[in-house]
Amino acid sequence: MASQDPHTDGSDRIPTLAYKQALCFSCWDIPSNLNRCIACKRVSYCSVKCQKQDWNRNHKKICKKLVALNKQKTCVPSTGRRWNDYYDEQVYYPTHLERRAAGYEPYCYHCYRRESQLEDGAKLKVCRYCFLTSFCPSCQQTHPSAECATLQDIAADEKIVVDLYRKTGKISTISFTAFPRKYHIPFSSATGWYDYYTRFSDKGGFSSKMNPDLKYQANDPKEREFVEYMRYGTNTTTTQLTLIAALEAIIRNISTQHSINLHIIGAAGAEFAALPAFEELLHQLPSLTAVQLSFVGPNVFKDLEDDTESQKPHTLQCCTACVKMGRSISIATWRGLYHAYIDTKFYKTPDLAAAFHSGFSVDEQADWFPTINYLAHAPHPTLFTADRFFEIEGEMGVWKYLGAEFVKNAEVNKWKGMTPSLGVCGDKPNEVTYRNNWWYIVKQS
């Protein structure tokens, strides 16, 4: 499902290293010499050819806005400045590309000044280990080693993405069990991803070659690449494993259940890219013969949008073993907000609804509220995930106001993605997030 063009799947797929000007913004190459856009100075390119390509594709839409943003910033002293000063200077832009280009602008780790706020001629110097942290000439040139190590992981994972794109033309990888299990092992008995790969899936042969963080510990280059793809693939299959854990939490007899009806609320690019991995529900829950998926949201892909009169479902291709056993996965899509969908003739009460990293307490609150108000007392449980704790705090406040109850209270999700991401202007410098880091389940009425 991944795009063949790294830029058509959305700006969130562009490596952070490119926004931080450690990669060519167009081809993601890592040359010895990069040249900045002379106008905005926010992106860099390895060649005139790449610069022209990106100008026609994206950059001409935002360059003037970034130039104007630079002109708003004047020299400020390095002392007495706080993170909130940097945070409050952020300008909201309507598109992800604009927000990321502005939000990932390098700043001094200690005084929080951007390059346009330094003394005349002064430049930021990048950390030579992680390439994601910068320092101004007036401040010390170091940051905490543990933080730097995590950022090095981000940089390493992004180089895996670049390598994957060069080899396959894709920017995401999916790693799940190749064959269905013969019996159900409760996910509640697992400690995390290492357990999943070595006990639940067919990757047990790597148990002695990687640590619990899925870091390779041997010397074979091909094996190393495979393990790296496994780790990076957790950012995709976190969706399916979190769903299985939620189903186990709400259905006592899940090991004997024959069919499951799931609604994915706010479905967008990430969920569509993970479609093949939904077969993991069949592989890990052997009694299932049918999974019905309904993807509902304003960003449902147009090319998968069903006829609104018939909403004929699509059938996903399953492995040969599942097909021989008569097992199937169908997906129906509906473009619009969930609270409107429930009033259509297509709606059927699901066993579980799920909204992954919705951010409903932070973004588009007015659009989300009618849906959240319904889900607080819906006739089915609903799974929610969030990447950051402040999102959880905000969401808990909304649920308390609506009088909702919980099957599972908010906690860190052991099936979160294992590859970290650098937040865009987070609550603190170099804030790192993990996909589906937090999860909870709202109780049915």
From TrEMBL:
This is MYND-type domain-containing protein. The keyword Metal-binding applies. Residues 24-63 form the MYND-type domain. Signal peptide: none annotated. Keywords: Metal-binding, Zinc, Zinc-finger. One of its GO terms (molecular function) is zinc ion binding. Gene3D superfamilies: 6.10.140.2220. It comes from the Eukaryota. InterPro entries: Mito_gene_expr_regulator (IPR052839), Mss51-like_C (IPR046824), Znf_MYND (IPR002893). PANTHER family: PROTEIN MSS51 HOMOLOG, MITOCHONDRIAL-RELATED, PTHR46920. Pfam families: MSS51_C (PF20179), zf-MYND (PF01753). The keyword Metal-binding applies. It comes from Melanomma pulvis-pyrius CBS 109.77.
